[in-house]
């Protein structure tokens, strides 16, 4: 059957088959599987039908556990059902997977295999997650490439229906799920031919049906449970044959043949590698390369891993096999080998002991590729070389340097295989926001679609959300591309640097092959650009004989109205230089793609793009490369020499993108990393920074309050300390009576840490009376000012902190003098969440412990290379940990309970040791301290210091015990922080339990009203009528009122805050919540880029949200009940802004007016009514008289 | 009574034509206007800014959402296609055409040359009987000469003419150095008519916030004088249809403008304030006046008091200025 060639990624390939062959799809977002759910949801929302002519019902659940439950239910009711997941999500599905398999239910679960959080979370690919599912009873089918993902998705669907054994179909996260490749798309005819309708009908008939009722899911006793488990054996025994037969049928239909264990290599191979997943691509290339040179090497690709057909595996091995290396992309600490190794070893040993094998080959096992660690032909060769040894290492690792337990093999990074011959390889360095990735995806589609070439694209993304760097790897050539690894050093024939700021920051030219092209976007004219390059880059260009091209893409973008978007300009240059297509044809294709994007509705955009494309050709210049290095500068060090040793040796290596080179010994063994390293990563990404005007400023403190990156600070200090200040350091006598004469204040920008969002200027209430355009702080693009401010910042940073005991924290001006202990995170420009976290660290950071739910806040809070949480001059700061997404409230509660226990134990020991300490005043002081203010905490710390000194003199077990817990006599502030996905959805059960516990824990919900971190999927916090992923037609149900639910407990402090609308209310809420000796829930409105609004309008959006009634501000303080007062206080006024005016400013709402205008209007009317009703309800509750029930009369 | 009139090459049953206003968003209201005696209807304007703002929003938040962050390549669902301001406008136009028997004139409002002007063709294809181009342009740049301002109008007309063959009406502001010459050049460039005049909405100043604030004051009958004046001057000087717009509130206002030479009289503020049925009242008033004066048709009295037909043409020129000043006396209590 003829098949169309398409260019797509692994996720789309899986989703394509899943959507066509199912009718119920239960989804939940998790990286890297989310796009599968997004595709399915989008196709259903567009009315795309499945093979049976019905539109699949796609339902988002509250967690993967929920999705698995829904899948189980839908299967039990006889529907063709599927789901997609990865990693932690898969773990949450395991209980249901046992049930689904135990009941012999046909289904396919598509998994983009990913690491499991252990010493750290990782979103990248390996088999750790799927390996945890081995005992569930699911069959496991591994796809090694994008083509296989599509093919196996169908083979799995056909086989499970016949066999009644559910199948976990997996492929490697990112490497396969996100790799774009040119593949053959399965036709509907092929799908119909593969799926036997009789099996579908049989599945339906097994569905629960009151007309033929049965009971499933009984409880069984010792008498029969065991036998019941053995009943399924025949199904599993038949399964390998059924899958192989499905593969055979598939082969006849498509010409692509597969087998359960597929041998590649000469028939007389002696050294064999066995593995599964994307690593097979690199291994296959290496086997072909080496065997062509006479080496007796081969490999086995494992397709069906469960049920494991040991007999077929052994049959697939050449008779000449002498040594086998089994490679596992997973780790089982403590095991004497990883799972695939054990399975292969067992199979071979069994065959030998049965006499099917004449001799027992030596079998060794090794780990590779954890968390998408590169797996290259050089490493494969390293494994084959090891097998040549008389005593090959077992177990081993490959791809890292293990200098601790010395497991790692040597490999040659420079080793290249024949497969790279005839393949054009191109590497592009860009910023996330400049469109480099989308332009390259488009280029692949053009090359894949318009030429006979096969094409592959793989993209390295960033863990930073602002100023993210992307590296695009494109390959194309006449044969299918199986190179499942990044373009190696010295292999790229085209290297493009789309951002001049990367010069000197990244090693880009080491990717370049001799005679390759280097294309640079630079505003420096061609005749001068040579000397913009550091010496080592010049040397590489000369040594490799590179052709050096330059284009002023920003200039062209500016002139043609493209703003900062340079994607089509750089794409045009790529085609013009590379000559992959005739220039005119390439330009026509780029223009066609642009037209497809904007259609007839964006004529002006079309014109701009066309103009930019045409101007790109004219603006492209070849630079005359001199014969010698003339540059006067070297690449600057990543961090200065003054950085601590760990930062210099480890953090700096990570920042430079060379983390792969770090040996095991340099990585902390238990996941413990030092704080404050973000301050060493000077990213310098702001095009404009704030310029403070001391003459106008009234010192209100609003600018540091709103700064998402803590990049503008205030500090109060004696003027006398400024004698040696650099000239650029600005300071002025503090206004007002709060601080004494001679005390100066400075509002200082950290120029290289600022992201240029401009919120500080936006919030500034002071205008120059003579020139109202000027405020007390103004954005400037003056690079001289920027450079001078470096010294000013360094001086400011080193000034002593103002004594916290003398500050009044309920005033913004005072609170903002407190040092933020959360700074320079990787959060988005203008992030709506981070100011809340920063505020908490200013107020309580020196005694804070944070339990952080997985999500945006755990990524910008704890994603390497650097850590934004930091310490005060005494070395105190927030102690932070991220457990999981779903368990964060419980995790925080556990911390609270532990601290309370240790505090209590310390108090008990104090009493027990009272006599031996011999200082009743000290002991009483420690036991009865009032620690509600900074002064009280300071005094208690002093007492603890004294106590510890006294204890040293006491030679006693109890004294030692007290020493270990004495720090907990100082009040701890325990926080559980996370987003709405956690608090409203996946973690709600735990959150509810923690609220009910009555324990003193502060819960901060950063409510962006969507799953922001995974790309804006709907949560129960998403408002009525808002468009989000999984709600393409607008969310039809209202936002859950979490605050109201929490208030029902009556002993929980609950508040709604929005710092951009009322900063003082936010500040007071944090202080009140923290001081409440019980659970506190702060629900913080957090504008997000997912709202479809420019975050330079962050504060305006908060204001609109509050004034439209979307986000009423209130505080519910249970302490007031005891005083006979109403606990609820509404802090915002009745809505004054029509709801329409609020939603018209945000694309998440306004786009619905265009896509579903009738629904949008209906939602709007409903929402308008609802916000008024809710405000009225809050107002009424706030004005209720508090009445206590009369005491029962005494008997 | 025959209130019919030729306008932009169309034969209208009535010389009363509601001008571009939000009323045409509603088909029901447009139907009411037709029933009340409107000769044609001018749709609310399709603003260049609405189209471009939407394009910018599309680019920023839908087409180019990528951040470079590994877990989120986008944040909002990627819609293949959706209705934009133009689609909604075209849909509205089609529904008006289906519902009404009178001509429907589409209205484009913008100031720059560019892709948006090409949308004229789609308006034509959707059934617009004519197109009004409203160049709502404030010439605030001191470097910009009056010549360049005029060129802008002519260029836009030229560009639009390239794309459509239905009649084009130019809605003008009174701020031309030589309006008569401008009208003549527009005539030569292919316009079918002009509407006099646009009302610019001046921002107001809020003395509490020390900021500007938008202001929207409905027109008054006094504003018809300027229109009357220029229509009277232009009447009979070229082939263009003349529309009077701005300040028409009563039958008396309309009659005066017809006497000055208007082919049609546009109403807006009066209808917004009093509802579509008010048009009948104006129409009845005109008919009553015609009956009183013995006119059977508009044709009989149109332009009777234009510069072309009045005994003393200087009444419309500078000489009139002297007479008015002479006749002006100060109110009581005002020191002269």
What this model shows, in words?
The complex is a heterodimer of chains A (1195) and B (336). Chain A has 1195 residues and is an alpha/beta fold. Chain A folds into seven domains: 4-210 and 222-254, Rossmann fold, CATH 3.40.50; 261-398, Rossmann fold; 426-623, Pyruvate-ferredoxin Oxidoreductase, domain 3; 638-672, Pyruvate-ferredoxin Oxidoreductase, domain 4, CATH 4.10.780; 684-818, Alpha-Beta Plaits (2-Layer Sandwich); 903-969, no CATH class; 973-1182, Thiamin diphosphate (ThDP)-binding fold, Pyr/PP domains (Rossmann fold, 3-Layer(aba) Sandwich). Chain A is built from 40 helices and 37 strands. In chain A, the strands form seven sheets. In chain A, strands 1-8-17-18-16-19-20-21-22 form a nine-stranded mixed β-sheet, sandwiched between helices. Chain A has an eight-stranded mixed β-sheet with strand order 29-28-30-31-35-34-36-37, with helices on both faces. In chain A, strands 3-2-4-5-7-6-12 form a seven-stranded mixed β-sheet, with helices on both faces. Chain A is globular and about 90 Å long. The N and C termini of chain A lie far apart (91 Å). The mean pLDDT of chain A is 96. Chain B has one domain: TIM Barrel, CATH 3.20.20. Chain B contains twelve helices and twelve strands. In chain B, the strands form three sheets. Chain B has an eight-stranded parallel β-sheet with strand order 3-12-11-8-7-6-5-4. In chain B, strands 1-2 form a two-stranded antiparallel sheet. In chain B, strand 11 (241-244), helix 8 (251-260) and strand 12 (264-267) form a beta-alpha-beta unit. Chains A and B meet through helix 2, helix 20 and helix 39 of A and helix 2 and helix 3 of B.
């Amino acid at each position: 059957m003829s098949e169309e060639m398409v260019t797509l990624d692994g996720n789309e390939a899986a989703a394509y088959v899943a959507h066509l062959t199912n009718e119920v799809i239960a989804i939940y977002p998790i990286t890297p599987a989310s796009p599968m759910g997004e595709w399915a949801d989008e196709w259903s929302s567009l009315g795309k039908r499945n093979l049976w002519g019905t539109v699949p019902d796609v339902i988002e659940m509250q967690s993967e556990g929920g999705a698995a439950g829904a899948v189980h239910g839908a299967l039990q009711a006889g529907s063709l059902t599927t789901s997609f997941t990865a990693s932690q999500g898969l773990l949450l599905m395991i209980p249901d997977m046992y049930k689904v398999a135990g009941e012999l239910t046909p289904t396919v679960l598509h998994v983009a295999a990913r690491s499991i959080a252990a010493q750290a979370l990782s979103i990248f690919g390996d088999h750790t997650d799927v390996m945890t599912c081995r005992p569930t009873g699911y069959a496991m089918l591994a796809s090694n490439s994008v083509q296989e993902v599509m093919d196996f998705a169908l083979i799995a669907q056909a086989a499970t229906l016949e066999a009644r054994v559910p199948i976990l179909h997996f492929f490697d996260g990112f490497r396969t799920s996100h790799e774009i490749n040119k593949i053959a798309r399965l036709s509907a005819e092929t799908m119909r031919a593969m799926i036997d309708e009789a099996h579908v009908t049989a599945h339906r008939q097994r569905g629960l049906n009151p007309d033929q009722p049965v009971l499933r899911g009984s409880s069984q006793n010792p008498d029969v449970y065991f036998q019941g488990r053995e009943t399924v054996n025949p199904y599993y025994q038949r399964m390998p044959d059924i899958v192989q037969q499905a593969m055979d049928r598939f082969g006849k239909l498509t010409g692509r043949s597969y087998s359960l264990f597929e041998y590649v290599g000469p028939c007389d191979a002696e050294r064999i590698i066995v593995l599964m997943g994307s690593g097979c691509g690199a291994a296959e290339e290496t086997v072909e390369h080496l065997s062509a040179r006479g080496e007796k090497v081969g490999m086995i690709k494992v397709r069906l891993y469960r049920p494991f057909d040991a007999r077929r595996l052994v049959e697939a091995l050449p008779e000449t096999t002498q040594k086998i290396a089994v490679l596992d992309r997973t780790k089982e600490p403590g095991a004497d080998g990883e799972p695939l190794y054990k399975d292969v070893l067992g199979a071979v040993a069994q065959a030998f002991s049965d006499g099917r094998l004449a001799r027992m080959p030596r079998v060794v096992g090794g780990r590779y590729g954890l968390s998408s660690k590169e797996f290259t032909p050089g490493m494969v060769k390293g494994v084959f070389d090891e097998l040549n040894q008389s005593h090959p290492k077992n177990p081993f690792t490959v791809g890292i340097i293990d200098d601790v337990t010395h497991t790692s093999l040597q490999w040659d990074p420079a080793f290249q295989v024949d497969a790279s011959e005839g393949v054009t390889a191109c590497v592009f360095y860009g910023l996330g926001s400049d469109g480099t990735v989308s332009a390259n995806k488009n280029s692949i589609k053009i090359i894949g679609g318009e030429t006979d070439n096969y094409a592959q694209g793989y993209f390295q993304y960033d863990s930073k959300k602002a100023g993210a760097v992307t590296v695009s790897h494109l390959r194309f050539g006449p044969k299918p591309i199986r190179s499942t690894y990044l373009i190696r050093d010295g292999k790229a024939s085209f290297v493009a640097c789309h951002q001049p700021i990367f010069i000197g920051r990244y090693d880009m030219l080491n990717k370049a092959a001799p005679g390759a092209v280097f294309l640079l976007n630079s505003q420096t004219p061609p005749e001068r650009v040579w000397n913009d390059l550091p010496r080592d880059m010049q040397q590489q260009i000369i040594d490799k004989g590179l052709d050096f091209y330059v284009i002023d893409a920003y200039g062209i973008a500016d002139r043609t109205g493209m703003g900062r978007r340079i994607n089509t300009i750089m794409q045009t240059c790529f085609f013009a230089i590379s000559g992959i297509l005739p220039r005119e044809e390439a330009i026509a294709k780029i223009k066609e793609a642009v037209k497809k994007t904007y259609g007839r509705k964006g004529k002006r955009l079309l014109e701009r793009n066309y103009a930019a494309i045409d101007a790109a050709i004219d603006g492209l210049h070849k630079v005359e490369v001199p014969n010698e290095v003339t540059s006067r500068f070297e690449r600057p060090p990543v961090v200065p020499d003054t950085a601590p040793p760990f930062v210099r040796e480890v953090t700096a290596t990570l920042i430079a993108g060379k983390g792969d080179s770090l040996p095991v010994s340099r990585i902390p063994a238990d996941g413990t990393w030092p704080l404050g390293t973000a301050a060493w990563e000077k990213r310098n990404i702001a095009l404009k920074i704030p310029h403070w005007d001391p003459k106008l400023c009234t010192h209100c403190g609003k600018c540091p309050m709103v700064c998402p990156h803590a990049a503008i600070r205030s500090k109060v200090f004696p003027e006398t300390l400024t004698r040696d200040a650099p000239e650029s350091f600005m300071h002025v006598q503090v206004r007002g009576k709060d601080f004494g004469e001679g005390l100066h204040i400075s509002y200082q920008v950290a120029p290289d840490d600022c992201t240029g969002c401009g919120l500080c200027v936006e919030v500034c209430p002071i205008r120059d009376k003579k020139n109202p355009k000027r405020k007390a702080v103004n954005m400037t693009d003056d690079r001289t000012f920027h450079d001078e401010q470096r010294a000013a910042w360094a001086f400011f940073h080193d000034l002593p902190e103002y004594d916290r005991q003398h500050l009044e924290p309920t005033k913004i001006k005072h609170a903002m003098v407190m040092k933020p202990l959360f700074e320079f995170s990787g959060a988005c420009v203008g992030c709506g969440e981070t100011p809340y976290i920063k505020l908490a660290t200013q107020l309580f950071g020196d005694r804070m412990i944070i339990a952080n739910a997985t999500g945006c806040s755990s990524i910008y809070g704890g994603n390497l290379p650097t850590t934004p949480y930091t310490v005060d001059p005494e070395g105190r700061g927030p102690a932070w940990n991220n457990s999981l997404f779903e368990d964060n409230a419980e995790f925080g509660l556990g911390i609270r309970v532990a601290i309370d226990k240790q505090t209590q134990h310390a108090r008990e020991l104090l009493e027990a040791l009272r006599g031996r300490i011999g200082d009743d005043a000290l002991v009483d002081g420690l036991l009865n301290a009032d620690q509600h203010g900074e002064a009280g905490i300071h005094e208690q710390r002093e007492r603890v210091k004294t106590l510890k000194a006294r204890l040293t003199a006491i030679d006693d077990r109890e004294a030692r015990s007290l020493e270990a817990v004495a720090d907990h006599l100082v009040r701890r502030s325990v926080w559980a922080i996370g987003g709405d996905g956690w608090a409203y959805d996946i973690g709600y059960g735990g959150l509810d339990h923690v609220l009910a516990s009555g324990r003193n824990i502060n819960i901060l919900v950063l409510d962006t009203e969507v799953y922001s971190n995974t790309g804006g999927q709907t949560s129960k916090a998403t408002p009525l009528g808002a468009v989000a992923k999984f709600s393409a037609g607008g969310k039809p149900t209202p936002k859950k009122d979490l605050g109201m639910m929490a208030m029902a407990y009556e002993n929980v402090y609950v508040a709604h805050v929005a710092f951009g609308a009322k900063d003082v209310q936010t500040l007071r809420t944090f202080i009140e919540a923290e001081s409440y000796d019980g659970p506190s829930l702060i629900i913080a409105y957090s504008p997000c880029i997912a709202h479809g609004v420019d975050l330079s309008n962050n504060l305006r959006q908060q204001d609109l949200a509050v004034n439209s009634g979307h986000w009423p501000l209130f505080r519910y303080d249970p302490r007031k009940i005891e005083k006979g007062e109403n606990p609820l206080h509404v802090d915002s006024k009745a809505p004054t802004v029509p709801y329409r005016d609020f939603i018209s400013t945000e694309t998440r709402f306004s786009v619905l007016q265009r896509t579903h205008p009738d629904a949008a209007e209906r939602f709007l009317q409903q929402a308008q009514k609802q916000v008024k009703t809710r405000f009225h309800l809050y107002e009424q509750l706030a004005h209720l008289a508090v009445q206590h029930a009369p005491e029962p009369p005494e008997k | 009574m025959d209130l019919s009139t030729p306008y932009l090459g169309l034969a209208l049953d009535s010389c009363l034509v509601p001008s571009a206003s939000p009323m045409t968003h509603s088909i029901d209201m447009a139907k009411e206007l037709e029933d009340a005696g409107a000769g044609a209807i001018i749709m609310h304007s399709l603003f260049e800014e609405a189209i471009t703002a939407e394009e910018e929003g599309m680019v920023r938040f839908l087409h180019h959402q990528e951040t470079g962050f590994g877990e989120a390549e986008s944040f909002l669902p990627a819609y293949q296609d959706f209705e934009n301001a133009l689609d909604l406008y075209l849909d509205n136009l089609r529904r008006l055409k289906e519902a009404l028997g009178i001509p429907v004139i589409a209205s484009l409002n913008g100031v720059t040359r560019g892709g948006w002007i090409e949308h004229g063709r789609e308006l034509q294809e959707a059934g617009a009987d004519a197109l009004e181009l409203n160049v709502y342009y404030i010439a605030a740049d001191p470097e910009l000469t009056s010549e360049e301002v005029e060129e802008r109008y002519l260029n836009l007309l030229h560009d639009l003419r390239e794309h459509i063959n239905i009649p084009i009406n130019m809605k003008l502001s009174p701020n031309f150095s030589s309006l008569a010459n401008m009208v003549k050049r527009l005539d030569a460039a292919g316009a079918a008519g002009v509407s006099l005049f646009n009302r610019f909405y001046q921002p107001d100043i809020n003395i509490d916030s020390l900021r500007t604030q938008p202001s929207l004051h409905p027109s008054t009958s006094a504003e018809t004088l300027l229109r009357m004046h220029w229509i009277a001057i232009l009447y009979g000087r070229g082939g263009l249809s003349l529309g009077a717009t701005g300040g028409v509130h009563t039958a008396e206002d309309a009659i005066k403008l017809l006497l000055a030479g208007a082919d049609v009289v546009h109403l807006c503020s009066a209808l917004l304030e009093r509802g579509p049925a008010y048009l009948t009242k104006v129409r009845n008033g005109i008919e009553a006046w015609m009956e009183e004066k013995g006119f059977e048709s508009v044709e009989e009295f149109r332009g009777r008091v234009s510069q072309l037909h009045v005994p003393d043409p200087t009444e419309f020129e500078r000489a009139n200025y002297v007479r008015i000043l002479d006749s002006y006396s100060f109110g009581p209590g005002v020191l002269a």
